[in-house]
Amino acid sequence: MDKIKLEIIGLSYSQTQSGAYALVLSEKNGNRRLPIIIGGFEAQAIAIELEKMVPSRPLTHDLFKDFASKFKIEVNEIIIHKLVEGIFHSKLVCIQNQKTIEIDARTSDAIAIGVRFDCPIYTYEHILSSAGILLDKESIKDNELLTDTIEEEAKQTIEKISITELENQLNQAIDGEDYELASKIRDEIKRRKA
What we know:
Elements: E1 3-13, E2 20-27, E3 32-39, H1 40-50, H2 60-70, E4 73-84, E5 87-96, E6 99-106, H3 107-117, E7 121-124, H4 125-131, E8 133-134, H5 137-158, H6 163-175, H7 179-193
Helix pairs in contact: 1-3, 2-3, 6-7
């Protein structure tokens, strides 16, 4: 079976499940999206790494990466290989001493680890055809327009807050381990100081 490469294009609070997030993966050379509902902890772990934030203490996925690196284990790729009763099954494809080892993992954990190793994410056609969402070009444009509008409104609101207050909010977000919010505040502070 040919593997299909996926890219992370979005992470947002789930409108359907309380306390959950929707991780949206996109087919690299196509219009299909693969939405996966994941827990808040895993969403936060993915967001922290994507935003290149450094928490005060290592998170579980950071610990896994450090542990694997110390024992010269490289995570080479993530494969979402099965969908059973609405649950995605994934595996980490690892290499140690030129030997390939596959490790079963929850998809959210696999991706949180995968982004730390900067490795590609793949799936198969049968997964995308059964759980993927096909967006036509007009839907993609509408989605981008909606995202741009929301971002513009948030930007106008945050511009009214002083840098001192933003720095206080940044510290509170980090202390509260809300790294997604912290990354947005950090970006605004950087933009203003540039």
